[in-house]
Amino acid sequence: MDISNWRTRIDELENMIIELLNKRAAYAVEIGKIKKQEGLPVFDASREQEILNRVAEKTRAQNGPLSPESMQRIFQTIMTETRQVEK
Ligand SMILES: O=C(O)C(=O)C[C@]1(C(=O)O)C=C[C@@H](O)C=C1
């Protein structure tokens, strides 16, 4: 396969990732509404740590090519941005 074929595949995956990230954020918006009703803070350090641990574990099990640390950085950014839509 040539570069342009691989890029087409990447483009397709990006569309899926965008859709999934927006779906994830939409669920978080619902969590944000409940937190507001219950007077809870948006930031939940223990939940974020739990996600980061699971992300590293799953990435390790898949054997890369992304490292567990790299995947954790990606998910940390996702959660930081998600907090913004919950406000
Ligand atoms: O699970 C929650 O409580 C959320 O608000 C969602 C979420 C996330 O993006 O996964 C976002 C902010 C919190 O700090 C923890 C997790």
The count of domains is 1
Provide the CATH topology.
Answer: Chorismate Mutase Domain, subunit A
Strand content: under 5%
Helix content: over 70%
Structure summary, number of beta strands: 0
The quaternary organization reads as single chain
Question: Termini separation (Å)?
Answer: 45 Å
**Uncertain stretches of 5 or more adjacent residues:** none
CATH architecture descriptor: Up-down Bundle
Structural class estimated from helices and strands: mainly alpha
Number of helices: 3
Question: How confident overall, as mean pLDDT?
Answer: 97
Structural features:
single chain, 87 residues, mainly alpha, Chorismate Mutase Domain, subunit A, 0% strand, binds prephenic acid, EC 5.4.99.5, CM_dom_sf, CM_II_prokaryot, coiled coil
List the helices and strands and how they pair.
Layout (H helix, E strand, L loop, with lengths): L2 H36 L6 H18 L5 H19 L1
Helix pairs in contact: 1-3, 2-3
Bound molecules: prephenic acid.
